[in-house]
Amino acid sequence: MKPLQGITVIEMARVLACPLAGMILAELGARVIKVEQPVTGDETRGYEPFADNAPQSEGDDAGLERSAYYYAFNRSKESISVNLRTAEGQDIVRKLVTEADVVLENFPTGTLARYGLDWPSLQKLNPQLVYVSCTGFGQTGPYAKRKGYDTVFQAMSGLMSMTGAREGEPVKPGVPVADMTSGLWIALGTLAMLQGAKGRREGAYLDFSMLDGQIPLLSLAAARFFTHAEIPARLGTEHPGRVPSASFRCADGGFVHITGADQHWKPLCKLLGLDALAEDPRLQENSGRVRHRDDVMQALTQACQEMTRDQLCAACDAFGVPAGPLKTLDEVMVDPHLQARGVFDSFEHPQTGTFPAIRLPFRFTGFDDPTPSRPPLLGEHNDRVLAELGFSLQQIDGLRAQGAI
Prior knowledge:
Number of helices: 18
Strand order of the largest sheet: 3-2-1-4-5-6
CATH topology of the largest domain: Rossmann fold
CATH superfamily of the largest domain: Crotonobetainyl-coa:carnitine coa-transferase, domain 1
Distance between the termini: 33 Å
Number of domains: 2
CATH architecture of the largest domain: 3-Layer(aba) Sandwich
Largest sheet: 6 strands, parallel
Number of strands: 11
Strand content: 5-15%
Radius of gyration: 25 Å
Structural class: alpha/beta
């Protein structure tokens, strides 16, 4: 048994943040029914890369089932294709919601109200409904009508301003941080509301702004700003308040990231042969090393260049200094520890065969662990879901003929 078994989620969402939240809930045991636009579906079905490395050709329906981007955030769900612009399509969603626990949606502010599918409308049908609206800037405020994507929120939140090399220009992180963290926040908020709703037998609504979701990530930088009015400088891999904490180039061109507290300072100096620094009274506490950052970093940088990446990692392990090799993605995929932990899995897809997947990072005792199953084909579950709602085969054929599904 999985922890969310018995929960039904209606996902009217696309691209990344909300679909990621839906996938998390699905692999924790919820039944997630994804409502997609007929013919095209979630637009990420057309996003590269494609599983067979062939470009999607115009009119190639099979191309809608080959997007690895779509695979990454839509596993373990069901798909129905419903035209929300039609009265019949809107009625299908209302029937779904009467028996559901959660609605996830990320339409532009005000869109679903025009269809009668917003929170006030659907709560009348299901008073215990948990409803999440995810937008770029929230339902209120001067930016509410603005549009944005992951990198816009990174830029506007301040995250991008503090990311990059010393004296360099701002850069974005290598993964869509705003999208991914928003998905995690949405999943957390949904679980909190489900628990609360269970206690009071009344639903709840979450107005989630992706920009808002980035601001808590600033907590450490904000603490320094609140204390010293300090605007963070770009420091590359260095930590603004801890020395050493940085990636160091090694003799073979690889990098090792070393982060140590006061108790690690002398062992680090010893393994690097920096006896003078180990005994320097100015450097015994972190505050002193921060004050003398440039001198400390220059000495550590030179010493680390005398060892290969593997040699430096082995020495740090032997001396109890926290450190790790800076790995590329191909190295991560074959990491023996991750392999032993079962981090990687796969699913069988009818269009592309066996396809790799990264599991959710939960290892339970008392519940079954989440495991990935394949993403749905577009509209794959139309007939089954509609039959469950009481539609006859003739009615389903009629909806299809009308373009409602």
